[in-house]
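Task 17 of the worksheet. Students: predict the tertiary structure of the chain below and write it out as structure tokens. Keep your answer in the requested format; marks are given for formatting as well as content.
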Amino acid sequence: MTSPFRDLIKACLRSFKKMVEAAKASPLEYRKQVSPAEWSDELGRLRVWASHVGAFDDGQGSVDARLNNFEHIREGIEKLLKEPEGVIMEVMTALSQDPAEGSVVIKPSDTLKDKTDLKIGIWESDGGQTELQQLYGHIRNIIPCLHQKADLIPRQN
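Model answer:
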């Protein structure tokens, strides 16, 4: 039986896994900015969340069945699960670039969507975060939001 929710979660987990593999194979300079272990931890947190909500359960225990009458909760979770895809694509692009070419400076007012074609750069802020670190922070913020939404999913009777 096909489960749209389960398929979305699987796709998200696959994307995360590819990103972790890319991080492991990335140049040392990028691994120093955000270690592969940190990316892997986020993948682990996503797996824990998926297990917690019963993302791979079947029948009446499935997330799809439990959210049948709660479209607003489903939409919120689906939105959160789709959000990492764009960020992961940016991370993959960043990791594939030559670190020596990463001289573009990104201003704090730039939005995430405005940076898709920019090279890795240093944020002009007191924190001095690289774009890669900023993207990691964005990914890292998604998982707690998913956990908050998980509390809204009705439990199986």
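Marker's comment: The helical segments are 4-25, 28-33, 36-52, 63-66, 71-95, 131-150. Confidence is low (pLDDT under 50) at residues 103-126.
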